[in-house]
Amino acid sequence: LSSLPLQILLYVNGVYYIFYFLATLAMIIYKSQVFSYPDDFLAPDLAVLFLMTILEVPRLYLGVKGNLTEAEAPLGLSLGLTVGSVMLCVYLLLWQTYVLWADVLLNAVLLSAYGLESGLKVMAIAAFVS
Which residues cross the membrane (predicted)? Predict the structure, then answer.
């Protein structure tokens, strides 16, 4: 009953998130050097990025574990962590100090992946329960 599309998407999302983290970190550093980035806003933007990374590791681990063991609880926890990651991604998309077009592109791809992944998780949980 394990979902192969979900497993593939979890793997791809893990690889993409590494790229996303490095690109977003580089853009925050770039924006702090090029623009007049207020010091009071640099720390929260970096904190959101690192908090998102802290959430991403267990989210992906629980998603893979829940899918491979066909267990609803880890997949449900992973789905809950996805909600937190989506909120942090929306912060980086809409409310960080400076939003570049590359930020919009990176966050749009990540939000799309989260949406697709969430749908597949719900379908997998429904298959495991029945």
Answer: 6-30, 42-61, 73-94, 106-129
